[in-house]
Amino acid sequence: MSSxxxxxxxxxxxxLLSAVLFSLGVIxxxxxxxxxxxxxxxxxxxxxxNLSFVTFAHQWHAVKGQIFVFFxxxxxxxxxxxxxxxxxxxxxxxxxxxxxRIDLMKx
Amino acid sequence: MHLxxxxxxxxxxxxxxxxxxxxSHPISSALSLIVVMTSLAVxxxxxxxxxxxxxQIIVYAGAIMVLFTFxxxxxxxxxxxxxxxxxxxxSVGFPAVVVILGVIATVILRAQGLGMAGLQDGxxxxxxxxxxxxxxxxxxxxxxxxxxxxxxxGAVALARNDGERKPGQ
Lengths: 107, 169
What we know:
The complex is a heterodimer of chains A (107) and B (169). Chain A is mainly alpha-helical. Chain A has four helices and one strand, in the order H-E-H-H-H. Chain A has one domain (2-94): Helix Hairpins (Orthogonal Bundle), CATH 1.10.287. Chain B is mainly α and 169 residues long. The interface between A and B is large, with 75 and 88 residues.
């Protein structure tokens, strides 16, 4: 039991988890048909990348990796505010959230 | 203990992410994204990033996701119809995802010199973080505050109702 309590985790597991989260975000971006859930998938991708930043900061004892995550969070907050405002404007103009019907620029 | 916590919260994380894809109602997707972000905060804490763990909960799980749920409820977003993506997404997107994941996983698994992470590794204190942030990286930090200000102005300008315009116009 004591060996289980002191067991360590390989750093590569964290990196694999971050890669899987990123891929799930890409898949969500491709299969979701609602503008808001597509946007949520982008947030999922950002979170996956953040996890690998934190993992590498831990691996090489580099504080700057964590600061990069801090900046990513700030940019993500700004992006969410502007993106959701755009979604509201699109909904007001087209009265729909389905990405298939927002096709004004499609050939 | 690290192993147990990692498996538990990595499981929550993956479960939440998969649930985000499976749910057809946007509000369910938003709630599972909150689960993902909160369990990621625990993983950050396991990796010794105490400040980021708290910032993840406050900024992501708090502010950003509240904004998301607010917009979902404001626009009264209903159940989405599932079409499994466009033809381009099926023919190019999904193979590309598999290739990307495969390449990244191979690189990670074959990489040498990646160590172990344990609870005894110690944490990066907020003091260390802020010392670098407010000395070496002061200019980027101030520039992001300008970015946030512009984002606020842009959000207000975009979401403001002009009054006379009607839907579909």
